[in-house]
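Structural prep section.
Before we set up the soaks we want a predicted structure of the protein with zinc ion in place, mainly to decide which crystallisation condition to try first. Input record follows.
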Amino acid sequence: MSQPAARADQHDTLARLTPIATGTVAALAYEQLRALILSGEMAAGARLSQLDLAERLQISRTPVREALRRLTGEGLVDALPQRGFRVADLGLDAVMRRLEVRRLLEPGIARLAAERASATDLAAMREAVRAERAARDGEAAHDASRAFHMALARSTQNTELVITLESKWIIEVGRRLLSRRAVEPDWQERDVAEHGAIVEAVQAGDGELAERLMRDHVNEAVGHWNPIARHDGAGALVQVSRRE
Ligand SMILES: [Zn+2]
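Run finished without errors. Recording the tokens verbatim:
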């Protein structure tokens, strides 16, 4: 008689268990791996074995793979065809290659934005410009600056462009670069003014002007970092963040 009752109790108890999503485990693995890569403890080029990582983290390989894919999307990890994953190179020369992609991509984004931006998009861009103007430290200025570029990309209504740009602009790398650049007293003011001019061109629907302003804007950044990249050689990210 008591047997079925006990089973029923156990059933009720089990019903109270909430499933642990593999996504949660993957997110925890992602956070740990990301921290090690960004701190430089996992060196550029180091192989990331799914088996070793799964063993070390004491989780199955599925969430490990998910974490690695997410890091690949962010550009922190390279996926090697048929050969697994390795830590991506985040040195200044790698940053220059990303900047080159932005130089080709963003003028086109600005032109499309001028054709497609909605009132909501324009408001998001203005808010980012306002936040950058109000920023009191390099980190806040960088994040607002990035928010502006992403808002512009979103206003093309093309998520592929947003994803591509996002993967070329890793927040932590940008912050470190800017901490080095923020020693230029008028950098922030100039950046805010250039962003503001792009918003005006987009709002006016002037694609040609928006494109030209963005080209000048990214060229300026390339012109700034190019000689430094040459001077540093294949400088590691740690060296990039060092202030002279
Ligand atoms: Zn900018």
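Observations: The chain has two domains: 2-87, 92-241.
Flagged for discussion at group meeting.
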